[in-house]
Write a structure and sequence with these properties.
UDP-N-acetylmuramoyl-L-alanine:D-glutamate ligase, 6-stranded mixed β-sheet, alpha/beta
């Protein structure tokens, strides 16, 4: 995948490029980024999960338009000395309830994208100057143990950006719609993410009509 993207990203001409569960590889991340920088029209860049790790470790986080960490991943971004989440220092990990401070620290050390979409009990959209948006409702505790509920956010925000929404607006819509889909699904901890996904069209419609 890395090799193909390096060779063909220019001819593909994406408007948004979202990197997700690729095996983190700093060298390949850099090579793809260099290929993107050579494009006549640069796509918007989104990174989640392992790809954020490679972007941070490679010193390229500011080249991205959006990172989508949960609070634990944000703690890793905030630790300027950690090459991998496993090595995030304890005193930073213990600040997970201080999201704004962690985000500010990540920006201070150049380890954050232009915008951060931070997933948690309260969701945040933040940039280098502070928090832009917070989303608390609807509060659906049963979404927390369901695998894939963060992935739906990454998919939605990337699609909305590709449709022309400004990045911060796309992030806010995706966060609200994800919670709305959870409310419509009325999930238990055993609910499959596939069931929640079926409610995304209605949820997006409701949020976009507000």
């Amino acid at each position: 995948i890395y090799r193909f993207l390096e060779a063909h990203v220019d001819e593909l001409g994406p408007t948004v490029l979202a990197f997700h569960y690729l095996q983190p590889d700093i060298d390949w991340q850099n090579r793809i980024l260099f290929a993107i920088q050579d494009m006549e029209k640069r796509p918007l860049l989104v990174a989640d999960a392992g790809y954020m790790y490679a972007a941070k470790a490679g010193g390229q986080a500011p080249e991205y338009d959006l990172f989508t960490p949960d609070v634990g991943e944000l703690a890793f971004l905030a630790d300027e000395n950690a090459p991998h989440p496993f090595y995030t220092r304890g005193f930073i990990l213990h600040q997970k309830d201080r999201v704004e401070e962690l985000a500010a620290r990540a920006y201070e050390h150049g380890n954050a994208a232009r915008l951060l979409l931070i997933k948690g009990k309260t969701d945040f959209v933040a940039h280098s100057q502070g928090v832009m948006h917070m989303v608390r409702e609807p509060d659906i505790p049963n979404l927390e143990p369901i695998g894939g509920t963060g992935d739906t956010i990454t998919g939605m925000v990337s699609a909305l950006m590709a449709c022309g929404l400004e990045t911060s607006e796309a992030a806010l819509v995706a966060l609200r719609a994800n919670r709305m889909a959870g409310s419509l699904a009325d999930p238990s901890p055993a609910t499959s993410i596939a069931e929640i996904i079926t409610h995304l069209p209605e949820a997006l419609g409701r949020v976009l009509s507000i």
